[in-house]
Every structure is written in C-alpha cells, then in structure tokens.
C-alpha cells in the first residue's frame, strides 16, 4: 500500500527538481528546494513504515526542522544582499 | 522494489550533479547542493543506513547551506569561466573514471553475504555487542567502543578544522552593532523585523534544542549520537541568530563559551581515555570505569558521545560566527 | 476492524499522493512565481496531513504515532511560514505578480 504513495512522492520530487533547474528567477529555485525538503520528509516517513522500522522517524523530524532553517537562511541572505546593493548604489 | 527506488534516486542525483556543474550562477549551485544533500540522505536511508542518513540530514541540508550562503555573501555571485585547459581536465577525468569503473568489476555485489567484509569482522561485532556492551544500536557500539580511536581522530580533525577557519577568518573581526539598535547593515527589511517568521521561529527553537538533546542521549538505542546532535543544536542556535541578529546570538552564547565547548569536548574524550589508563586498563578501555564491565562500556560511550556533541556544536557555531561577523564590517 | 482501518488508510494515502502529485505538476506548469507558490503550498498542507494521518492510522497507539503527530505539527507550522517569508521576500525584491486584465486575455 505504501508503494503507490512513495511513487507519487518520488515523481513529485523529480518535478520539483526540474523546477529548481529551469526556474527563471531565484525564488522559483528556493520554492523548489523547500518543496523538495517537505517531500523528502514525507518520503522518509512512508518508507520508514514500508520497511517496518518506525524508529527511523527521527530522520523525518530532523529534516522537517532543518529544511525550515535552510529556507530562512536563504531568505536572510537575499534580503541582506539586496540591502547591500541598495547601499552601494546610493553611495 | 528497492532497486526501483534506488535507481530513481540515483538518476535524480546524476541530474542534479550535472545541473550543479553546468550552471555558472553560484547561488543556483548552492541551492542545488542542498537538493543533492537531500537526495543523498534519501539514498542512505534506502540502503538502511540510518545514522549516516541522519548525519547527512543534519549537516548537509541545513548547516552546509547556511555556511555556503555566508561565504557567497562575501564574494561574487557568478563564476568566472575558465577558458584554458578544459580538454586536459576532461581527459584526466575520463581516464580516472574508466579506471574506477574497471576497478569495480572485482567488487562483490552489494549486500552479498559471502563478501569478505561480512565474514570476518561484522559477525564478530554483531555477536559480541550484546555480551560486551549490551546496547541495541550496533553502529554506536562500533563507533564509540570498538573503533574509539578512529572517533577520537575524527573529533580532533573537526577541532583542527575549526581552528584553521578561525585563523583564516579571524575570531575578533566584526564588532557588535551598538545596542541602541542603530545602523545595522540590514535595515528594516531584514528577517528579524518580520513578525510571523519571528514568532514561529521563537516557538520552535526550544523544541529543536530539546530534540538535539534527545538525539544525543538516544544514540545508544536508535539512530543518533554526538555528531548529529551537535549539528541539530547548532542549527537551533543558528536559527536564533537568523531571527534576532548575530550580535544577540553572541550575547546569548558568547564566544568564550563556544571556545570552551570546542576544546572541552575533545579534552573530555581524551580524559576518558586517560581515566582508562589510570584505573588499570588500556587507553580508551571503558570496561574498567566501573565495577561492572558492561555498565562501564555504556557509561564510557555516553561520556564520549557527549564530548563529540560539544565539540561539533561549538565548532559549527564558531565557523558560522566567523562568516557572519565578517559580513558586518563591509 | 483492522480491515476498516486498512481501507481508510489506503484511501487517505492515495488521496494524499494524488494531492502531492497535483501540487508538483502545478509547480511545474503554472506561469508565474506566485501561482506556483499556490501549487507548492498545496503539497505542504493537504498532502502532508492526509499522508501522515494515513500512516498514523496504521501505527496505532504507540510512540511512532506520537512522533508522526510531532512531524505533522512541525510541517503545518513551518510550511506556511516559509511560504510567507518567501513570498514577502520576493515581493520586497520587486518580483511583481501579473494581474489579469481583460485586454491581456486572448479572445
């Protein structure tokens, strides 16, 4: 029963990867990475039950946290970079 | 069915690697490296290596992306194209690849029970761990006790890397911004002035750090241990630094405390080894720590994992502060 | 009773998988960044709720169900926040959403 779901999640991961490679603006790519992280979390949960090892759920929980921190770090980088560009232009 | 998963994930991995190499926008490369690390963790998980997958998750997806972005903020965004020597490097890579592929013809198949690695050491570890150490997670037993020297060496490698980065980037550049809140480089648009991420982030930080402690002490029973826990706690404090500003994070966990953690962790590990000698055994022999050898092994593993967690957390935070502090002076 | 739980979790998992696939397809095919964000948030919220509920039904009352609940709460908290921060950052950097105007549409 878990094979259908894991297949759907894997296909969506491929679609997100295409969006990360193609996406014209950088925000498309950040969106794709965020989506990829959430899908990885779900894939890890489903596969953990598929293999009958429910004590592997720690990995999914870790990923849910780390993905969030990664996306926030990227956004902080963007904003400080655009601020620096504005300051340079006004100097 | 595992083959289908593995082939799919490995194909995505190859596509990501090709995309990373082909792009010349370094920011896109950093994003795709994040995806690469996620794919690698999924691969490790499919291969049933949970500890490695957890370490890849904790360090690769979060901390490495943050450090790459910190480095990218200090440098240019587009890669300078290399015009000379491309065919030479392509030739060298092709020859090396062919040699490596030829070398794998001799390898036993993946998971073959008759492979040499499964006949000598691995059954011995699997049989002796319940008798000698009696913890469910054999990986931690091998890492902490049977191969304790190697882990001591890894810990000192991390310590040396941290020292090297601090020498290069300078530990004391970047003064604190004045506490009356004026003239920080990132003005009102920075992340710390948005309400929603700030509230949600503040809510999550205690849980992240608690989860890090859980992983630290749960390493004997499930996937976990010192490396992963140090990375998760460091990620929680980095989240605090992203939300509140680096100066505030330095006030919360000062640099002296971080240096103490880095050095103290490595010294704790060495101290356990020397305590083994002082109590009559060999270096890093945990059986002599208490009366019951099995309990001594467990206590020894607990203490060295604590040392590993302290050093990893301190090292990652020091490197992060070294990058972030340098940015403020520009 | 076990059959009912199995059927229920089958349904939840399949519908969740369908939502995730639709979200991924939308993220690829929709024209604008903000519209793609709508599609991606679909996978974050509905997909994760249905799939994790489906697995929780299979796990019964155990530590695994509690961990799955923790994962669900985490994803529901951090997913919309990340989408908000991303959209805000994109808007402040000047990426303008395209508005539909009647003279834009082809007849």
> Which residue ranges of chain A are poorly predicted, with pLDDT under 50 across at least 5 consecutive positions?
none
Individual helix count of chain A: 3
Task: Indicate how many domains the architecture of chain B comprises.
Answer: 2
Helical content of chain B, roughly? over 70%
Q: How many separate helices of chain B?
A: 12
Overall spatial form of chain A = elongated
Number of strands of chain B: 0
Q: Provide mean pLDDT of chain B, rounded.
A: 84
The proportion of strand residues of chain A reads: under 5%
Radius of gyration of chain B: 23 Å
Average residue-wise pLDDT of chain A = 85
The main β sheet of chain A shows up as: none
Provide the helix percentage of chain A.
over 70%
Largest sheet of chain B: none
Report the uncertain regions of chain B. Answer: 176-189
Bin the strand percentage of chain B. under 5%
Order of helices and strands of chain A: HHH
Helix-and-strand structural type of chain B: mainly alpha
Task: Report the strand count of chain A.
Answer: 0
The two chains with the largest interface, and their residue counts, are: A-B, 47 and 58 residues
Oligomer: heterotrimer
Describe this structure in words.
- Chain A has helices spanning 2-22, 26-50, 57-90.
- By secondary structure, chain A is an all-alpha fold.
- Chain A has one domain.
- In chain A, helix 1 (2-22) packs antiparallel against helix 2 (26-50).
- Helix content of chain B is 71%, strand content 0%.
- Chain B has 12 helices and no strands.
- Chain B has helices at 2-22, 26-46, 50-72, 86-103, 121-132, 138-146, 148-169, 195-217, 226-244, 246-252, 255-278, 293-328.
- In chain B, helix 7 runs parallel beside helix 12 (293-328), helix 9 (226-244) crosses helix 10 and helix 9 runs parallel beside helix 12.
- The model of chain B is unreliable at 176-189 (pLDDT under 50).
- In chain C, 79% of the residues lie in helices and 0% in strands.
- Chain C is elongated.
- Chain C has 3 helices and no strands.
- Chain C has one domain (2-92).
How would you concisely characterize the structure shown here?
The complex is a heterotrimer of chains A (91), B (330) and C (107). By secondary structure, chain B is an all-alpha fold. Helix content of chain B is 71%, strand content 0%.
Structural key phrases:
heterotrimer, B: 330 residues, mainly alpha, Four Helix Bundle (Hemerythrin (Met), subunit A), 2 domains, 71% helix, 0% strand, globular, C: 107 residues, 3 helices
